[in-house]
Design goal:
- By secondary structure, the protein is of the alpha+beta class.
- The protein folds into 2 domains: 8-46, no CATH class; 48-98, Irregular (HU Protein, Chain A).
- The chain contains 3 helices and 5 strands.
- The strands form 2 sheets. A 3-stranded antiparallel sheet has the order 1-2-5.
- Strand 3 (64-67) and strand 4 (74-77) form a beta hairpin.
- It is elongated and about 55 Å long.
- The two termini are 23 Å apart.
- The relative contact order is 0.12.
């Protein structure tokens, strides 16, 4: 089975360049700035909501008992923060209908 295609930052930049008639440097800066804004908000403990698309939030995972799959021994998994993405209603509708 072939791996599905993935949209990369370069693809997104190229798409914006075609539709907005900006230069490559401008669209690269636009994409980098947009992603940096999301990262900065999450680092500050804030959520990011893109109406119709979805929202990014940080969630805390508590420490837990895990198992090393190679050796089978029990290990302690440390608590951590993970990014959680929740689909917006409009995106969910478009993905289900099409």
């Amino acid at each position: 089975m072939e791996a599905p295609e993935t949209l990369t930052k370069a693809d997104l930049s190229r798409h914006l360049m075609e539709h907005l008639e900006f230069g490559k440097a401008d669209t690269d800066l636009l994409v980098r700035t947009f992603l940096a804004s999301i990262i900065a908000s999450l680092r500050a403990g804030e959520g990011v909501e893109l109406r119709g698309f979805g929202s990014f939030r940080l969630r805390d995972r508590r420490a837990r008992q895990g198992r090393n799959p190679r050796s089978g021994e029990n290990i302690q998994v440390a608590p951590k923060r993970v990014v959680y993405f929740k689909l917006g209603k409009e995106l969910r509708t478009k993905l289900i209908e099409e």
